Amino acid sequence: MTKTSNKSKFLPLMGVAFVGLFAYAAYNELTKSPGQITSPALAQSYPACETPAAPDGVETVAMEMELETGTVEFELRPDLAPKHVERITTLANEGFYDNVVFHRVIEGFMAQTGDPTGTGMGGSDYPDLPAEFTDTNYQCGTLGMARSQNPNSANSQFFITFEDAEFLNGQYTVFGYVTDGMEHIHQIKKGDPNRNGMVVEPDKIVSFRVKDQ
Questions:
Q1: In DSSP terms, which residues pair with 71 in a beta bridge?
Q2: Boundaries of each PPIase cyclophilin-type domain copy (predicted)?
Q3: What pLDDT, in 10s, does the model give residues 100-141?
């Protein structure tokens, strides 16, 4: 259940005019963060991200991702992006994300996954989603949907931010947050900054499912 496109789903940090020099400066600033973690002891030096509380009455969706280094838990927010949460949970429970790699990972910025082809140009057989942009802040541990230059082109690829990235606010759909295990996200193998973060022999998702309640 895979489709390919001639347009890569990406975050416009490099080479896209509407972000421009501001994003490039932000990228340079973000890349000054600590390097890739190589041991569980070093992982403890990364503090957990603070998850914004959902409004009263909002039923969040708990999800669990298994990586080779450990388990990461997420809280999905249908109040922010109901169509995107529905898509992610549907694909996850179909096993779509199992063994899918983090094909694009930029130190100090984000880790991107969700393309079964591992090229950044693939997606699911489901139709692309209409944008659900909000003024929600991109902070540490935010889940956002990757897309091409077309705002309504998100499909299955998503990213997890390592640090605050406010320059993405209002341009990419936020659909959830990391609630536990952020140290394992920091351990994902980083890509080549000269190749826009593309990773050689990338790390993969072992499994990703709605968490049993």
A1: 66
A2: 70-210
A3: 999 999 999 999 999 999 999 999 999 999 999 999 999 999
Structural domains in the chain, CATH included, are 3-210 (2.40.100.10)
Joined tokens for residue 181:
């295990």
Nearest-angstrom CA–CA distance, 37 and 43: 6
Q: What is the pTM of this model?
A: 0.83
Please give the backbone phi and psi of residue 114, each rounded to the nearest 5 degrees, phi first: 100, 5
- Which amino acid is located at 65 in the chain? M
Distances 164 to 108, 136, 161, 194 between C-alpha atoms, Å: 9, 12, 7, 22
Tell me whether residue 105 is exposed, middle or buried, using C-beta atoms within 10 angstroms of its C-beta: 0 to 12, 13 to 18, 19 or more: buried
- Summarised one tens digit per residue, pLDDT across range 89-105 is 999 999 999 999 999 99
